[in-house]
Design a protein that fits this description.
Blueprint: H1 5-25, H2 31-51, H3 61-81, H4 87-107, H5 122-141, H6 171-191
Helix pairs in contact: 1-2, 1-6, 2-4, 2-6, 3-4, 5-6
Length: 192
Amino acid sequence: MHGPAQAAWLLVALCAAAGAYCLLRMRSRIEEQRRTAGGDALMGFGMAVMAVPAAVIAPPRWAWLAYTAVFGAAALRAVWAARTDRHHLHHLIGAFAMVYMSVAMLTAPGAHAGHGGAGVPPLTGALLLYFTGYVLWSGARLAPRPPAPARGGPSAGAPGGPPPLGWGDRPEVALACRVSMGIGMLAMLLTL
């Protein structure tokens, strides 16, 4: 990816941290967390590696081919998994965006694939719109809500109630990771 080196290193750190947290989520007691954590971890680490400034490491041509193959396989897996879990559609679009960026770097390092002049290529524009919408929608879901009124049932951690959530099981932290990776995807698409 091309752009200021400091911004690239911040993106590397953000995506690597999100990927590491998603690896921890793979050990969650909550099945929903485990189902999506692997795809999120792959996306986080893949984005971190792709965001390393080209001035530091100029990936050889085969690296972009490997990226295309890995994220192409992730997209196929996401198509299969999307039959039962709607979140995998987001993984599908994310994997497709990674394939698109890999192909762009493979065909024309330093330029957009299919970029014939001024303006943004239509596919890049569509991906930018999707990830902008995803970040705004997911970010709004992170906004605090007033607590639900107590219904007289046992509370979390109380005898007979559900056990308290561990820090790796918190859905709001997983959502925050997805928001940060969505912002990272926007940054990568803008600097492609």
